[in-house]
């Protein structure tokens, strides 16, 4: 399958037999992040044209599943975790610990490559940002977001997500 494989080749371009052969020969790693934190990150990076987080969320909810913006699509629609058996699921917030395990399994020196990760500081910052931005949303927006990301919240353990409460 190397003849057709390139960085831009999507899995959907192959037939089922080719897909199964390729997926069986790779170590499959899925990186997941709380959907509310993904929204905040997208907003903070200026990927939306909205002046406030609340109006940005409204734009996301209005475009819904039909949006081509992968930044806020539910993970289950992007990564198909029910169809693909991932070897590892790495949660944002545990990157240093989990990447260290992956690197050592691959025979690489994990310590020298992971010294710059500071998950605890990042988690604290996102917790604070989440509280601030969640308070900007109406009850209806909160409920709609929880519904929009319901499959992500069911598929992955995000126990501290503002959307799961």
UniProtKB/TrEMBL annotation:
**What's the Enzyme Commission number for this chain?**
2.8.2.-
Coiled-coil ranges from the UniProt annotation: none
Q: Does the keyword section mention Glycoprotein? A: yes
Q: Which EC class does it fall in?
A: transferase
In alphabetical order, the GO MF annotations are:
sulfotransferase activity
Instruction: List the record's Gene Ontology CC terms alphabetically.
Output: Golgi membrane
Key words of the record: Carbohydrate metabolism, Glycoprotein, Golgi apparatus, Membrane, Signal-anchor, Transferase, Transmembrane, Transmembrane helix
- Annotated InterPro entries: Carb_sulfotrans_8-10, Sulfotransferase
Q: Which GO terms describe its biological process?
A: carbohydrate biosynthetic process; dermatan sulfate proteoglycan metabolic process
Q: How does it sit in the membrane?
A: Single-pass type II membrane protein
Which family, according to the similarity comment?
Belongs to the sulfotransferase 2 family.
The protein, known as: Carbohydrate sulfotransferase
Organism this protein belongs to = Rhinopomastus cyanomelas (Common scimitarbill)
Encoding gene (name) = Chst9_1
């Amino acid at each position: 399958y190397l003849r057709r494989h390139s960085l831009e080749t999507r899995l959907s371009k192959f037939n089922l037999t080719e897909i199964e052969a390729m997926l069986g020969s790779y170590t499959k790693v899925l990186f997941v992040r709380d959907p509310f934190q993904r929204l905040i990150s997208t907003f903070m990076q200026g990927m939306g044209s909205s002046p406030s987080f609340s109006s940005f969320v409204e734009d996301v909810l209005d475009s819904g599943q039909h949006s081509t913006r992968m930044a806020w699509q539910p993970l289950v629609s992007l990564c198909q975790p029910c169809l693909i058996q991932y070897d590892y699921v790495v949660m944002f917030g545990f990157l240093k610990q989990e990447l260290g395990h992956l690197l050592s399994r691959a025979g690489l020196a994990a310590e020298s490559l992971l010294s710059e990760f500071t998950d605890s500081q990042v988690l604290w910052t996102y917790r604070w940002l989440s509280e601030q931005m969640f308070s900007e949303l109406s009850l209806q927006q909160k409920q709609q977001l929880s519904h929009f990301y319901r499959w992500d919240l069911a598929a992955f353990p995000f126990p501290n997500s503002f959307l799961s409460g």
